[in-house]
Amino acid sequence: MELEEMIDGNFFKLVDDIAEKFLKNEDGRKITVVHHNDADGICSASILKALLESLNADYRMICVEKVYPAVIKKIHEDGEGVYLYTDLGGLAAEIIERYTGENSVSFIIDHHPARKVESEKVYMLDPELAGISGVVFISASSLIYIFSRRINPEIEDYAYIALLGAVGDYHDRYGGVLGFDRVILDEAIMKKQVKIRLEGVKERYYLPFFDDYADTVSRKLTTLGAAGYLEKGYLDGIEVCFNGFTERTLEKVRRLEELKEEKFRKEIDRLRSGFNETEHIQWFSVENRFDPMGVKTIGEFCQTIKDMTFVKQDKYLIGFQNIPALIPDLGEIEWRGVKVSGRTPSQLERMVLHGKMPGLDVLIPRASERVGGHADATHKIAAATVIDIGKEPEFISAMEEAIKDETSKNSRC
Ligand SMILES: [Mn+2]
Predict the structure, then answer these.
(1) Fold adopted by 3-214
(2) Over 70: is that where the pLDDT of 403 sits?
(3) Residue 273 CA, ligand 1 centroid: distance in Å
(4) Please, what is the average pLDDT of the chain?
(5) Which terminus of the chain is more exposed, N or C, with fewer CB under 10 A?
């Protein structure tokens, strides 16, 4: 059965529309792909690379961890043409529109929650804007796959790459991938790129090409792209998507895993002597100690420690990591920022999920706004933002205030 027959035809009209606009704008102009550095972002970039090469396009790729004004400005400063943001950018559309020059056009093909802009210079394709959850039903890689296949049907050879991205974003968390991801899985199975194996009630996806499972492969891709960010490990990730692992790339994954373990161990030792604390928050900064790992690491670290014995169960956990001044594909950025990661220890998490304490999806954007920051991925129990360096204490006070506002609101009703 055709993909189109199985799921919402309206969404495909949007895809067609964007594909058509892209082709019209491409037309021999320079293309800049801006992608994220985790497995999903790497897989999206890989599929786009295959597409752009099949079109003989003149293109370059820029891998970024976060989009914030200084980075977007720098991306567009370096030239003009067609810009394609993927696996990021949904919430930054307004800023992207601001920096997209007169002779340029930007496409945002993302699956994160998004704010739409009406503009002749910015075109968006985001399932969230069409009422389809990008957290559950479609990864950026699946979206890019559907988009790319409309332009060149031969992209079907890379259905397995789309699946790797979906699994990398944990879209198999309910026992198997769902929605659009599922339809692409079925295609990959038909093309003999993937086999389903059941472990208990959970599906795992075996990829003969890698002689390994999708979850294992995508974890390694994320290690290359995230832990190896400052040494351009994402380029190895793209290479791996098409050619599999080599002794060199496997060795790199092992080295990066060890590096991360060692850095985490040292930081845990440091934190055993205590956090900075307010009434409801425990917080710390790793400053530059996680270099050369990217700033995704602070989120992973908070997740790792949130239920350890030295962490208070009833306080929000906030970690800061300085954003490296150097973007490998772009050079020096003029702005000094810090990444903020928030998590909730399990006991607090239950209170949040039961509505007895405010969620990070409310607190982090509010505190972030107060200090002029740029919240991106926010969920009730895990959230991130980017703020100016030096504003950490101010951010914490703003967040503490937001907690008090919210809890007094609760007790009143
Ligand atoms: Mn993603």
Answers:
(1) inorganic pyrophosphatase (n-terminal core) (3.90.1640)
(2) yes
(3) 36
(4) 94
(5) C
pLDDT tens-digit readout, 362-395? 999 999 999 999 776 678 899 999 999 999 999 9
Q: What is the pTM of this model?
A: 0.91
Measured between its terminal Cα atoms, the distance across the chain in Å is 52
**CA dihedral of 111, 115, 117, 122, whole degrees rounded to 10:** -30
% residues pLDDT > 70 (the chain): 97
- b/e code 349-364 from CB counts within 10 Å (16+ = b): beebeeeebbbbbbbb
Region of 323 please: left (phi>0), alpha (psi -120 to 50) or beta.
Answer: beta
CA 134 to centroid of ligand 1, rounded, Å? 8
* Element containing residue 42 per DSSP (H, E): helix 39-54
What tokens appear for 391 in the block?
A: 């504003």
Q: Give domain limits for the chain.
A: 3-214, 264-412
**CA 135 distance to own-chain centroid:** 11
Q: How far apart are CA 255 and CA 14, in angstroms?
A: 43
In tens, the pLDDT along 79-124 reads 899 999 999 998 899 999 999 999 999 999 999 988 899 899 999 9
Ion ligand 1 nearby residues (CB, 5 A): 40, 87, 140, 169
Expressed in angstroms and rounded, the spacing between residue 115 Cα and the centre of ligand 1 is 17
Q: What spacing in Å lies between the alpha carbon of 86 and ligand 1's midpoint?
A: 9
Mean pLDDT of 185-193: 97
Architecture of domain 264-412: Roll (3.10)
Ligand 1 centre and the CA of 175: distance in Å? 18
